[in-house]
């Protein structure tokens, strides 16, 4: 993908209201400044999406579209996928990309064995896995020609689960395998699962402050105490480098520290 940032691109970024997703949208917009590209920002929080849009406008002239959406609402996923892809045209754009950043921790306080509510589990699966599946398959159905790129924001937890984060780790592992399998069926579509490392985000600090599993809380607090937490800018810059170098195996799972 040597020319990835030189093409007019229709790009979707989920979870773009803050943290890694916001930084991802901002850095992508800078890379595509001279290409007439469009970035579609997706999240539940409209005001936060507007903030991201304003930040992008300060450093890049790319077109920005906002799509407020609750990816945990199963009934709305079809409509959401239609909205995020509504602006795409093969005549206008040379390539398309979707960056799956949206995600949540789930219940990190209640012991896993006590999480017995099927509705709560189903809602978590919808927000963190089903939504990725539907947006990806709709993306591939809509964008059938030209270079295509799919990125999944993964986590080291997919290989090294932590106490209290069973749901989170399971979903991250499932998302990785989803892309690995999809790459076999679509070898012409470039894919990557990227683990951003321990980053200074609300989600990271929530584990350190709220995790019900004592050793998990302690290990996350140790990372802070030992100055081992990355800024979101550092981690996303690494992702940009990986995309530019384009040396990874398709659907590879790469950690910041690899």
TrEMBL record:
Signal peptide: none annotated. The keyword Chaperone does not apply. One of its GO terms (molecular function) is sepiapterin reductase (NADP+) activity. GO terms for cellular component: cytoplasm. The keyword Lyase does not apply. It is found in: Cytoplasm. Keywords: Cytoplasm, NADP, Oxidoreductase. InterPro entries: Biopterin_syn/organic_redct, NAD(P)-bd_dom_sf, SDR_fam. Pfam families: adh_short. One of its GO terms (biological process) is tetrahydrobiopterin biosynthetic process. This is Sepiapterin reductase.
């Amino acid at each position: 993908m040597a020319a990835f940032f030189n093409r007019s691109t229709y790009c979707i970024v989920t979870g773009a209201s803050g943290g890694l997703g916001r930084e991802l949208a901002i850095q992508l917009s800078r890379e595509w400044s001279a290409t007439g590209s469009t970035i579609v920002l997706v999240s539940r929080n409209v005001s936060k999406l507007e903030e991201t849009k304003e930040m992008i406008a300060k450093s890049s002239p790319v077109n920005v579209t906002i799509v407020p959406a609750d990816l945990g609402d199963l009934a709305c996923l079809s409509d959401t996928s239609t909205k995020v892809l509504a602006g795409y045209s093969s005549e206008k754009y040379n390539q398309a990309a979707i960056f799956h950043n949206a995600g949540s921790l789930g219940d990190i306080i209640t012991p896993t064995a006590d999480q017995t509510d099927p509705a709560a589990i189903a809602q978590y699966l919808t927000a963190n896995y089903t939504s990725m599946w539907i947006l990806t398959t709709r993306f591939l159905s809509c964008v059938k020609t030209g270079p295509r790129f799919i990125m999944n924001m993964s986590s080291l937890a997919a290989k090294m689960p932590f106490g209290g984060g069973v749901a989170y780790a399971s979903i991250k592992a499932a998302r990785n395998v989803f892309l690995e399998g999809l790459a076999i069926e679509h070898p012409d579509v470039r894919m990557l699962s990227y683990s951003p490392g321990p980053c200074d985000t609300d989600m990271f600090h929530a584990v350190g402050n709220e995790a019900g599993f004592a050793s998990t809380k302690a290990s996350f607090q140790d990372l802070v105490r030992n100055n081992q937490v990355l800024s979101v800018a550092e981690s996303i810059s690494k992702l940009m480098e990986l995309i530019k170098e384009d040396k990874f195996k398709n659907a590879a799972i790469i950690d910041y520290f690899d």
